[in-house]
């Protein structure tokens, strides 16, 4: 599998966080599992809003907190999950995430509560507050395909 690649990006506000998500969406491929973690209000849903735009989805992205998963349609389907209210693995099994990954991209908020689905190409993102609107987003690529994804967004977000 190879070594992990870590990249830290400082965003200055919601529009910048959304732009980062858009950059990921523009290069995303089916099988990508975005494991999103961080504080409440840390920018995870804002990032997914940009991800959906980058995938060409026209729908307005809303937090899936109470419905657990929302689906958006663009050049690939986007399955936006929130695991915060799930209590055990049986709940996550019902989502059939392996099937979702065969078709499109999964973005899972509070992903660290469960193991990623089998065969997922994991790109993890941890969101931290660094100011009123500023965020520090630490992205970790766990396989060759996600390292390529991370490298390609360097063009939009130079170090």
Count of helix runs: 5
Number of strands: 7
The strand order across the widest sheet is: 1-7-6-2-5-4-3
Which fold does the CATH topology refer to?
A: Rossmann fold
Q: How many domain units?
A: 1
CATH architecture, by name, is: 3-Layer(aba) Sandwich
Helix-strand category: alpha/beta
Q: Helical content, roughly? A: 25-40%
In the CATH hierarchy, what is the class? Alpha Beta
Mean pLDDT: 87
SSE topology string: EHEHEEHHEEEH
Envelope shape: globular
User: How would a textbook summarize the main sheet?
Assistant: 7 strands, mixed
Strand content: 25-35%
General description of the model:
This protein is α/β, with parallel strands linked by helices. The protein has one domain (5-153): P-loop containing nucleotide triphosphate hydrolases (Rossmann fold), CATH 3.40.50. It is built from five helices and seven strands. A seven-stranded mixed beta sheet has the order 1-7-6-2-5-4-3, with helices on both faces. Strand 3 (69-73) and strand 4 form a beta hairpin. Helix 1 (14-27) packs across helix 2 (44-54) and helix 1 crosses helix 5 (144-153). The model has no long low-confidence stretch (mean pLDDT 87).
């Amino acid at each position: 599998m190879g070594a992990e690649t870590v990249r830290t990006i400082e965003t200055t506000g919601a529009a910048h966080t959304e732009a980062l998500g858009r950059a990921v969406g523009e290069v995303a491929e089916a099988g990508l599992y975005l494991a999103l973690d961080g504080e409440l209000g840390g920018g995870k849903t804002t990032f997914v809003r940009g991800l959906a735009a980058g995938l060409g989805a026209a729908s307005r992205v809303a937090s899936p907190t109470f419905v657990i998963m929302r689906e958006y349609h663009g050049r690939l389907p986007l399955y936006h999950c929130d695991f915060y209210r799930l209590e055990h693995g049986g709940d996550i099994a019902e989502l059939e995430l392996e099937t979702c990954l065969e078709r499109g991209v999964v973005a899972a908020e509070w992903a660290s509560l469960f193991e990623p689905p089998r065969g997922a190409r994991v790109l993890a993102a941890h969101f931290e507050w660094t100011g009123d609107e500023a965020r520090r987003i630490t992205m970790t690529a766990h396989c060759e395909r996600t390292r390529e994804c991370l490298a390609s967004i360097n063009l939009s977000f130079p170090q």
